[in-house]
Automatic annotation (TrEMBL):
Organism domain of life: Bacteria
Entry annotated with the keyword Amino-acid biosynthesis: no
Bilayer topology: Multi-pass membrane protein
Protein name in UniProt: ATPase
Record carries keyword Transcription regulation: no
Gene Ontology CC entries for this record: plasma membrane
Annotated localization: Cell membrane
Organism: Stutzerimonas stutzeri
One Gene Ontology molecular-function label: monoatomic cation transmembrane transporter activity
Ranges that cross the membrane: 43-65, 72-95, 122-143, 187-210, 222-245, 294-326, 347-366, 407-425
One matching Pfam family: TrkH
GO biological process terms held by the UniProt record: metal ion transport
Keywords for this protein: Cell membrane, Ion transport, Membrane, Transmembrane, Transmembrane helix, Transport
Length: 442
């Protein structure tokens, strides 16, 4: 029993339990728009995608599922993005008014960059920021949908709520068959969604740091500085590169006026980093833009937030390691701080295992389908990075390939977190060291 309560295992098991419960609920006739029982693979795939805040779908969310089914999906990605263990920590706080060490350790496995003393403050911040942001975005979207698009108040409110929760949790689910393509020229729809995606994707440790030391950037943690600077580089770089690749593409940005091109390129850059919404046809992008999406989707967002991927901080640490090696320095440094060797080893491990999962998933699906390699790679990275963007092949994949995608989504949402937590919590010093030798590298 104690082995099951190990923090990393607890996170994985609770997410798995949520998936199983969601699958059962979505299999009920009441969850289907026509009162039928959904096929098991369809219900299971949708539940995994929702809990893992991915957004890949094999059926149209708005027409296949009933209001009950859509509500279940929204609840699942709210729980998945909010963090199962953060939720458990908050419940423990409300009931016991204090945190036991085991509860703190389990919560730390969900937000592993934190120290134990930060868990209580971050858990409270998670609740306030999540509900506050979702409420604000919902109100903005509801007003816009009712006043400008003529939707009845009830329909506008449901659409606003669903998309607000989906955006903040970086889930990518939409009740529209075309995602947000119908709003591609509407800044009052896309900008609030972008804001929710970015804030949710920064990670709660960063938000906690900003809240407590907003006016004193010099005392921000190295993690916060690396995440903010890395996020800015990726957002701006993705925006400019997408403009370059798609400016004249007649199937995407080509027919748009330049303000709309800027808006759609910015939205695509933000959404590619695990949000999964799209305001332009992903299947019509150039191959260069697909390759850019591989990069953005694999990296993802900030640690201990609603985003997926191997995380901005991981890639930033590796970049610092490469720069230090090129310069012939023994230490990786940034912002007047030295990156610990343990963090460097963990970053390398996460990147290598993440890359291995992408390669494995690609090989398995290529063996089972005749789809082009670039489309399969896009699908696999989107699943592993819990992004949810697709070139349009998800529903046409055989069930075995769809199940492979569910494994990638689960590992992407849970496995990397569990791995990092296990490394951090399981580190110990050996009582001896072997003689050192220098193998040839390169």
């Amino acid at each position: 029993m104690k082995s099951l309560l190990y923090p990393g295992r607890a996170v994985a098991l609770v997410f798995l339990l949520a998936i199983l419960c969601g699958s059962i609920l979505l299999s009920l006739p009441v969850a289907h728009a026509h009162g039928e029982s959904a096929p098991w693979v369809t219900a299971f795939f949708t539940a995994v995608s929702a809990v893992c805040v991915t957004g890949l779908v094999v059926v149209d969310t708005g027409t296949y599922w009933s209001l009950f089914g859509q509500s279940v999906i929204m609840l699942l990605f709210q729980l998945g993005g909010f963090g199962m263990m953060t939720l458990a920590t908050l419940l423990g706080l409300l009931v016991n008014r204090s945190f036991r060490l085991r509860t703190k350790l389990i919560a730390q496995a969900e937000s592993h960059v934190l120290g134990l003393g930060d868990i209580s403050g971050v858990a409270k911040l998670v609740l306030v920021v999540t509900l506050g942001m979702e409420l604000v975005i919902m109100l903005l979207l509801t007003l816009r949908l009712h006043l400008s698009y003529g939707l009845p108040w009830g329909e506008a409110a449901w659409s606003g709520l669903f998309h607000a929760v989906s955006a903040f949790n970086n889930a990518g689910f939409s009740i529209h068959g075309d995602s947000l393509v119908r709003y591609s020229s509407d800044a009052l729809i896309l900008l609030p969604v972008m804001m929710a995606i970015v804030i949710g994707g920064l990670g709660f440790p960063v938000l906690y740091d900003l809240r407590s030391k907003f006016s004193d950037p010099r005392h921000w943690s190295l993690h916060t500085k690396l995440t903010l600077s890395g996020t800015a580089v990726l957002l701006v770089g993705g925006f400019l590169t997408l403009l370059l690749f798609e400016w004249s593409n007649p199937n995407t940005l080509g027919p748009m006026a330049w303000p709309e091109k800027l808006l759609s390129a910015a939205f695509a850059s933000v959404s590619a980093r695990t949000a999964g919404f799209n305001s332009i046809d992903i299947g019509a992008l150039t191959h260069e833009s697909w390759a850019l999406h591989y990069f953005l989707m694999f990296i993802g967002g900030g640690s201990a937030g609603t985003a997926g991927g191997v995380k901005v901080g991981t890639v930033a640490i590796l970049a610092l390691l490469v720069i230090a090696e090129i310069r012939g320095r023994t230490d990786s440094e940034a912002f007047g701080r030295r990156v610990g060797s343990s963090a460097q080893r963990q970053a390398i491990t996460v990147l290598v295992l993440g890359s291995a999962m992408v390669v494995l998933g690609t090989l398995v699906i290529l063996r089972e389908t005749d789809f082009p390699t670039d489309q399969v790679i896009f699908e696999v990275i989107s699943a592993f990075g819990t992004v949810g963007l697709s070139t349009g092949i998800t529903a046409d994949l055989p069930e075995s390939s769809q199940l492979m995608l569910t494994l990638l989504m689960y590992v992407g949402r849970v496995g990397i977190i569990t791995l990092a937590a296990s490394l951090a919590l399981g580190e110990h010093r050996m009582p001896y060291r072997y003689p050192e030798e220098q193998p040839i590298v390169g």
